[in-house]
Specification:
binds magnesium ion; binds NADP nicotinamide-adenine-dinucleotide phosphate; two-stranded antiparallel ribbon; alpha/beta; about 45% helix; 14 helices; single chain
């Protein structure tokens, strides 16, 4: 095993739940460990481990990413009432991704993995559309209240020096609901910076969209800060990279995206990014063909698959079925993390391996070996559908 690729520094390995946890092990065993002397700092974010640690392990894993610079994460269950019963949980913790994003204050970039056999649902799309999702605040950190009956709802800011601002949200004539959300100038600024840095790296024009005609102060602030960051820090660098910056209203951009040919970074506010990344993923092919990276202004990176734990497949696997779950996004999460590790540590053999594994994976699909989700979309259709184990073996064969 002396000829395995060596790593200088570890990556933070964050294990997860259900079917993705099963595939995680498989990918490591068949596609990574035989070729790399894998160095990781391991955190188990499986739902029971989070419960046992009172969710502290989630924060610890985020801090480890801060310390080591690169993490790779498996999909995890976000607990809810049904999961509480299923796993006999004492607590409902927030989504681990939200917790990690809050620690790293990063922007999530989601990029479809294209293969020529899979045509996007939108025929005009020729190049990937990358979504940059602001990963802090808005509705994900909102406070909500049920209003039991008629009354006045107010919003109050009390400064640390006692100063006060107060406005009426609504004079409610009857029962209803209310929500208060926030964001921070610095987080928006860092969001804009992460987007321009990513776009310059990838040579992609930046489109940013919000609804500042309706939300003049809140969305207006996003527009203003984005513009200011572009003008003061990135105009020249973008010009040098041959890319430009474009702002428009979210509904206008949504319409343009469908008519365009792709090949740009679409910077989205938190909720827009959540929704649009699933729309882009599904229109590009399969949820399993989307990679995701959290780029923090601290200069640290967390890679993951964009999909969830593929719960229904897991239940079938538990009954003994060999499911045809697609591991490509998980594989690309690992290759993304290893390539970044290689870049930061200046270890070209590790970078070369990451690229080789990506090519072997794509070649496997191009040559007609694929899982069911892709087989349904492929043109020409493959002669047969592989289960996850056969598919990973098919990649391993091409790797060696
Ligand atoms: P999901 O796990 O993404 O799966 C939704 C459906 O998409 C699956 O039933 C499957 O469709 C298809 N799919 C997704 N990934 C696939 C893959 N790799 N290969 C083949 N098909 C794939 O979403 P979910 O069922 O809504 O959520 C399940 C759990 O994941 C939840 O507990 C949720 O909290 C969690 N989650 C975690 C993350 C994260 O950690 N980043 C993100 C989202 C959701 P078919 O059934 O039609 O085959
Ligand atoms: Mg989503």
């Amino acid at each position: 095993m002396a000829d395995r690729v060596q790593m200088k520094n570890p990556v933070v390995e964050i294990d997860g739940d259900e079917m993705t946890r099963v595939l995680w092990r498989l990918v490591k065993e068949k596609l990574l460990s035989p070729y790399i002397d894998l160095k990781t700092e391991y955190y188990d974010l499986g739902i029971l481990s989070r419960e046992e640690s009172n969710d502290e392990i989630t924060v610890e894993s985020a801090q480890a990413i801060k310390r080591l610079g690169v993490g790779v994460k498996c999909a995890t269950i976000t607990s809810n009432a049904a999961r509480k019963t299923e796993y006999n949980l004492r607590n409902l913790f927030p989504s681990p991704n939200a917790t990690i994003r809050a620690v790293l204050d990063g922007t999530v970039f989601r990029r479809p993995i294209n293969v020529s056999r899979i045509r996007p649902s939108i025929p005009s799309w020729k190049k990937p559309i990358v979504i940059g999702r602001h990963a802090y605040g808005d509705v994900y950190k909102a406070s909500e209240m049920v209003i039991p009956s008629a009354g006045k709802v107010e919003m109050v800011w009390t400064g640390n020096d006692g100063a006060e601002k107060r406005i009426t949200v609504a004079d409610m004539p009857a029962a209803g609901i209310v929500q208060g959300m926030h964001n921070l100038d610095e987080s928006i600024r860092n969001f804009a910076r992460s987007c321009f840095l990513y776009a310059i790296d990838e040579k992609l024009p930046v489109w940013f969209a919000a609804k500042d005609t309706i939300s003049k102060i809140y969305d207006g602030r996003f527009k203003e800060i984005f513009n200011e960051v572009y003008e003061t820090e990135f105009r020249e660098k973008c010009k040098a990279a041959g890319i430009d910056y474009f702002y428009s209203l979210i509904d206008d951009v949504a319409a343009r995206v469908v008519k365009g040919e792709g090949g740009f970074l679409w910077a989205c506010k938190n909720y827009d990014g959540d929704v649009m990344s699933d729309l882009i993923a599904s229109a590009s092919g399969s949820l399993a063909m989307m990679t995701s990276v959290l780029v923090s202004p601290l200069g640290v990176y967390e890679y993951e698959a964009a999909h969830g734990t593929v719960q229904q497949h897991y239940y079938r696997w538990q009954k003994g079925e060999k499911t045809s779950t697609n591991p490509i996004a998980l594989i690309f999460a690992w290759t993304g993390a290893l390539a970044k590790r290689a870049e930061l540590d200046d270890t070209p053999p590790l970078l070369a391996f990451a690229k080789k594994l990506e090519q072997a994976t794509l070649m496997t699909v191009e040559e007609g070996d694929m899982t069911g989700d892709l087989a349904r979309l492929a043109d020409p259709a493959p002669p047969r559908i592989l289960d996850s184990w056969e598919f990973v073996d098919a990649i391993a064969k091409r790797l060696s």
